[in-house]
Amino acid sequence: MAIGIAALIITDSMTLVVPWLIKEFIDVLPGKPSSELLLKYVFLLLGVSLFLVAGRYGWRVYMFGASRKIEFDILNRLFEHLLILDRTWYLKQKTGDIMSRATNDLRAVREFFGLGVLILIDAVFVIFAAVGMMSWINFDLMLKVFLPLPIISFLFFYFVKEIGKRHKAVQEHLALITGLVQQNLAGIRVLHSFVQEENEKTKFAQLNNEYINKNLAVTRIFGIFTPTMVFILGVAAMLSLWMGGKAVIAGSMTLGSFVAFNGYLMLLSWPMMGIGYVFNLTQKGMAAMGRIQEIFVSQSEIKPAPEGTGTLVEVGDIEFQGLKFSYPGEDTLSLKGIDIKIFQGQTLGVVGVIGSGKTTLAQMLLRFYDPTAGALLIGGRPIKEIHRLRDSIGYVSQEPFLFSMSIRDNIVLGRVSATDRELEEIVRIAGLKKDVERFPHRLDTLIGERGVSLSGGQKQRVALARALIKKPEILILDDAFSHLDSETEEEILENIQGQLRQTTTLIISHRLSAVRGADQIIVMDAGQIIEQGNHASLVRAGGVYANLFQNQLLAREMEILL
Ligand SMILES: Nc1ncnc2c1ncn2[C@@H]1O[C@H](COP(=O)(O)OP(=O)(O)OP(=O)(O)O)[C@@H](O)[C@H]1O
Ligand SMILES: [Mg+2]
Fold it and tell me: What is the pLDDT of residue 340?
């Protein structure tokens, strides 16, 4: 960057030499100089021009290179920061908006640091130097010519403010558009199946139209700004010609000085407009940097436990003590005082109607959020104090997410060090063996956009394998078998129980067959535990669970009959 700036200043200084050479040239003319002397001036001018070309190349390379480096660093830091932010933050964000900040806004910042800084230094230097030269030639004339200056500054600041405001609106709108595109692409199948293409097209066209209008608003104000500046400069030139001309006639100024004075005045026209452009870039860059900065200052609310506070090597019992929780920004409690103890190595079954708080309960164990009130202890220690807690937990979420990579890579994400034999074993336990054998490249088959599409049940089992290969101390299955038939489900559950004897397991399910064998079962309703016991005792109690059991039994018999 420093080299670039140096090259720029040297180049600019050379530009200033040109009117001076012309002045000398004109001033020697009345003395009838030899052709040799005249040729000397011509070659000098040629030399300066060549030097200018080289100088321009120099600053371009160095300045733009530096701005790319700045962009690169910001993007890296941004990605790192995005990786550590927690759910509470992501809940409040739109993916499209984040994407827009990482691309459009970042580009605006780069343009500011490259082009913007460059033009700024260029313009400020040329303005000061040219005005300096003019005062040196004729201080009096310089003062008169710049009489309109206060008006310029006033107009200038008005424009700058207005341009900034309009730029911010453009950037924000662009984020909106990115958001819509991102959402539509993610849900393209839904759009197709609901024949919503036309609707979305109209919606997009409308947003796009507004975007153009907002951009035009910026262009409009620029359309006024630039000509205004040119006009003011024109007035200055007029004053200079008139008063300078009089001075030459009066003999108080040489013709060469008069020409040079006007030459310097003309040199000002580019930086005057350049400054306008810089302010444009600066406003854009600042608005953009502000939007990127908003991500940088966001912090995770979940503070990781300090190192050395002990990991979950030996787990111990899990205890919910009067735990209450409401989602960030929500008034109602999603968990209203949960008290339960799960002994190490045992299995807890969780059932309950939709929205009763089952997933929320599981997420407390993963510490996606901290409790609003009450406590959650593992092995007698508050969960907040357990370092690298999630290392010890295998979690299969209700809507498993698989990456667009091979099945193998998706599974070993759980534990990169897993051997091929372990992998094979896990594939068997997760009931994936037969499926994998049918895939074109077995475990190396790609999933998603560039590979095969998995069925819902296959996805669930890949996600299960990913959790199992961690050999977790705690295993959480959130409705993990909803896409499987009861037989497969039973088979897999048996496999798991045979394999992970030491593991404390939490099975959330809508199907009672999945929790039937659990050591303990809770029935949840509206964030509370309404029944608790094991299968036999709950059936005997004749409550919600018993009812549900009868219904599901009946349904199953019907299934077999039909
Ligand atoms: N991110 C969230 N922000 C705000 N409220 C939420 C959020 N996620 C869930 N809730 C609310 O918390 C309550 C419990 O939801 P939860 O997902 O735990 O239910 P669930 O028992 O897992 O239901 P399901 O059987 O459908 O999976 C619901 O009332 C839901 O609206
Ligand atoms: Mg759920």
Answer: 92
